[in-house]
Design a protein that fits this description.
Blueprint (H helix, E strand, L loop, with lengths): L1 E6 L6 H10 L7 H19 L6 E8 L5 E2 L5 E11 L5 E2 L5 E6 L3 E6 L5 E10 L10 H16 L11 H7 L5 E10 L7 E12 L8 H12 L4 E2 L2 E15 L5 E13 L4
Antiparallel strand pairs: 1-2, 2-8, 3-7, 4-5, 4-8, 6-7, 9-10, 10-13, 11-12, 12-13
C-alpha cells in the first residue's frame, strides 16, 4: 500500500502564528522551516493517536483484489474516486458497479473490487481528518502538535528519530482509541438463570520507535478489565479471565496490540 496526500492540511496561518508565539520568534526568516515542522508534528500525532488530526484529501494505492481492504487513515468522511492502474498505460476511472465502498464504525473506510478489468492495482481517493481546520482542533491535539514542533525546532541539530516527549504524549494519549477487534458468545445458562460466555479481543493500535512506550497503557487496560465490578444493570459478571495477548507489526510502522478475554455473565435474578 502506498499513500499520498493530494491536498494537505494548512499550517501556514494560525498554526504557524501559534508556534512562533510558543517559541518567542518574531521574524519571518524561519517560517518555511517552522511550517514543515508543524506538518511533521501532525504526522507524529497521527502516528501516535491513530487519527489524522486535520482535514486532507488522500490517495492510497492497493492491489486490485476481491476481498475487502481497509484504508489506513481514520477518520474517513467520504471515498470520492476509485481509479484502475493497469500494468501499462494511463489510469482509468472504474465504473460504479466495479467496486463496493463502505464507511464503517469508527469512521473507517473500506472497499472491495468486484470487477478489476485491466487493473492490477487501484488508486482510492478519499477525504479524511478529525477537524476541518486548525481553529476547530481540540485543545489537547493542538497543544501537542505545537509543543512537539517546538521540540523539533529546539533539537534541530540533534540526531533524528526518537519518541515524542512525555509532555506531548500526555496531551495526545486521551485521543487514542481502543476497539473491539472480534467477539463471539456461546450459551452459559444454568437451570435457574440465562447466561452467556463472551470472548472479546480488544485492539490498541499505535506507532512510534519504542514499543516499550505503550507498556504502561497496556498494563492500565489489563488492570481496569480485571477490576470490573460484578453487578451491572440486567446481568451479573460471574468471571473475567485473561486468555492471551499478541503484538503485530503492520504497514506504515503500525503496531497492533491484541488482548483477548473471556467474560461469563448471568442475568439478574428476579426479586
Amino acid at each position: 500500500m502506498k499513500r499520498a496526500i493530494i491536498a494537505p492540511a494548512e499550517f501556514g496561518g494560525a498554526a504557524l502564528d501559534e508556534l512562533k508565539h510558543w517559541l518567542a520568534i518574531t521574524t519571518t526568516q524561519d517560517d518555511a522551516a517552522l511550517t514543515a515542522l508543524l506538518s511533521a508534528s501532525a504526522d507524529m500525532c497521527e502516528a501516535f493517536c491513530g487519527l489524522m488530526p486535520l482535514a486532507a484529501t488522500c490517495e492510497e494505492i492497493w492491489p486490485a483484489r476481491g476481498e475487502r481492504q481497509q484504508l489506513t487513515v481514520r477518520p474517513v468522511h467520504a471515498i470520492t474516486a476509485v481509479e484502475g492502474i493497469p500494468a501499462e498505460g494511463p489510469r482509468f476511472i472504474m465504473p460504479a458497479d466495479a467496486f463496493e465502498l463502505d464507511l464503517g464504525e469508527g469512521q473507517t473506510g473500506s472497499f472491495r473490487i468486484l470487477r478489476k478489468g485491466a487493473a492490477g492495482r487501484v488508486a482510492v481517493r478519499f477525504a479524511a481528518g478529525f477537524a476541518p481546520g486548525w481553529g476547530s482542533l481540540p485543545e489537547g491535539l493542538r497543544q501537542g502538535i505545537i509543543r512537539y514542533a517546538g521540540h523539533l525546532y529546539r533539537e534541530r541539530d540533534a540526531a533524528p528519530g526518537g519518541s515524542p516527549p512525555a509532555a506531548v504524549t500526555a496531551l495526545w494519549r486521551p485521543w487514542r482509541e481502543m476497539r473491539i477487534a472480534a467477539s463471539a458468545s456461546t450459551d452459559w445458562s444454568t437451570k435457574e438463570r440465562a447466561g452467556r460466555e463472551i470472548r472479546v479481543a480488544l485492539e490498541l493500535q499505535t506507532r512510534g520507535d519504542d514499543p516499550r512506550a505503550d507498556a504502561a497503557l497496556i498494563t492500565a487496560i489489563e488492570r481496569r478489565v480485571s477490576a470490573l465490578p460484578a453487578a451491572h444493570t440486567g446481568f451479573q459478571l460471574a468471571s473475567v479471565q485473561f486468555l492471551r495477548a499478541r503484538a503485530e507489526r503492520r504497514d506504515r510502522g503500525l503496531r497492533s496490540f491484541l488482548l483477548e478475554y473471556r467474560f461469563r455473565i448471568l442475568e439478574n435474578q428476579s426479586e
